[in-house]
């Protein structure tokens, strides 16, 4: 399995990852989110919403993988948006993401 996806599973088990549209949006607004990940197969509207919000609050954003792989990596059904709330995990995932070709967008 991809190192980035494995890292997401570790972050979930450590309680350093939040998932779900509203919860992630709240984490962005409160500056808790250190990295937001949006599925590559999310709707254009969802991608734009999180791209704009992350840009406003200066939170790094990644768009990549698909919702099934993101969900299975954290032990849940399909997930469209995730946020890491720990800087160490965020740095680890960013480094692992850079090495994969499945990422469409990194900001």
TrEMBL record:
One of its GO terms (cellular component) is ribosome. The keyword Cell division does not apply. InterPro entries: Ribosomal_eL30-like_sf, Ribosomal_eL8/eL30/eS12/Gad45. It comes from the Bacteria. The keyword Ribonucleoprotein applies. Residues 7-89 form the Ribosomal protein eL8/eL30/eS12/Gadd45 domain. It holds the Pfam family Ribosomal_L7Ae. Keywords: Ribonucleoprotein, Ribosomal protein. This is L7Ae/L30e/S12e/Gadd45 family ribosomal protein. It comes from Paenibacillus puldeungensis.
């Amino acid at each position: 399995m991809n190192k980035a996806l494995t890292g997401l599973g570790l972050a979930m088990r450590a309680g350093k990852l939040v998932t779900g549209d509203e919860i992630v949006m709240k984490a962005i607004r409160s500056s808790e989110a250190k990295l937001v990940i949006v599925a590559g197969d999310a709707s254009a509207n969802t991608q734009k919403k999180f791209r704009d919000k992350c840009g406003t609050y200066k939170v790094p954003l990644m768009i990549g993988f698909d919702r099934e792989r993101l969900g299975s990596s954290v032990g849940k059904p399909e997930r469209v948006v995730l946020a890491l709330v720990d800087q160490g995990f965020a740095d680890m995932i960013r480094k692992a993401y850079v090495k994969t070709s499945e990422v469409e967008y990194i900001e």
